[in-house]
């Protein structure tokens, strides 16, 4: 079971692992990686829209975290610091190139396969999920990041603000604007 980002805050085991990893203990850092890699991947996937890019971003994030871990002062939670690195890496990917075909899913039936109400429902559900993914990727990054962090990744607005380097209120406003923009982009699916 995945822990929420807030659950790790104040975790004595995590604090000890960070301390050991700052001293060069690779096993301690490996423990931190195991704890956070799935959450990082989920955020990266929603930010980039591409599984390959998401994997690359997570790897780059972990490498950068390892390299800069001695400078981590603990002013925010380790998860917050790590996610901030990840968001910055996602911004770099976005600046380098725009996604071409985000997370497409096959919704067509095989030739000759009979149609059924259940198959039609599955196809519509898959198409609507794909529409949401595409619409999410159309949002400006300053709106996409707070929406992904709060709605899909379980961060509070305060944590999201710290990750993005903005106030809690700014994080709320950006997430609200993102939800409004998504609603506009997805009007045909209402």
Structural commentary:
The chain has a domain at 1-100: RNA polymerase sigma factor, region 2, helix turn helix motif (Rna Polymerase Sigma Factor, Chain: A), CATH 1.10.1740.10. With 190 residues, it is mainly alpha-helical. It has helices at 5-8, 12-22, 26-48, 51-68, 78-96, 117-138, 141-152, 157-164, 168-185.
Describe the protein's topology.
Elements: H1 5-8, H2 12-22, H3 26-48, H4 51-68, H5 78-96, H6 117-138, H7 141-152, H8 157-164, H9 168-185
Helix pairs in contact: 2-3, 3-4, 3-5, 3-7, 4-5, 5-8, 7-8, 7-9, 8-9
Give the CATH topology of the domain at 1-100.
Answer: Rna Polymerase Sigma Factor, Chain: A
What would you say the CATH architecture of the domain at 1-100 is?
Orthogonal Bundle
Portion of residues within helices = over 70%
Query: Count of DSSP helices?
Result: 9
What ranges have pLDDT less than 50 throughout 5 or more consecutive residues? 1-8, 99-111
Distance between the termini: 33 Å
Q: Give me the count of strands.
A: 0
Determine Rg (CA atoms, Å).
Answer: 19 Å
Order of helices and strands: HHHHHHHHH
The CATH first-level class of the domain at 1-100 comes to Mainly Alpha
Overall 3D form: globular
Describe the structure concisely for a colleague.
With about 190 residues, the protein is mainly α. The protein contains nine helices and no strands.
Key features of this structure:
single chain; 190 residues; 0% strand; mainly alpha; Rna Polymerase Sigma Factor, Chain: A
């Amino acid at each position: 079971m995945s822990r929420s980002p807030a659950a790790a805050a104040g975790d004595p085991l995590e604090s000890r692992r960070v301390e050991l990893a700052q001293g060069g203990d690779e096993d301690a850092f490996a423990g931190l990686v195991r704890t956070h890699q799935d959450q990082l991947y989920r955020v990266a996937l929603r930010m980039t829209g591409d599984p390959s890019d998401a994997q690359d971003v997570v790897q780059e994030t972990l490498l950068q975290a390892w390299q800069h871990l001695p400078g981590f002062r603990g002013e925010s939670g380790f998860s917050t610091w790590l996610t901030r690195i990840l968001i910055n890496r996602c911004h770099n990917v976005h600046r380098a190139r725009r996604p071409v075909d985000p997370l497409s899913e096959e919704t067509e039936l095989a030739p000759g396969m009979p149609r059924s109400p259940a198959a039609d429902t599955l196809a519509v559900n898959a198409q609507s999920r794909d529409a949401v993914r595409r619409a999410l990727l159309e949002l400006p990054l300053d709106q996409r990041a707070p929406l992904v962090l709060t709605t899909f990744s379980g961060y509070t607005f305060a944590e999201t603000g710290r990750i993005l380097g903005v106030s809690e209120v700014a994080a709320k406003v950006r997430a609200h604007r993102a939800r409004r923009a998504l609603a506009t982009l997805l009007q045909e699916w209402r």
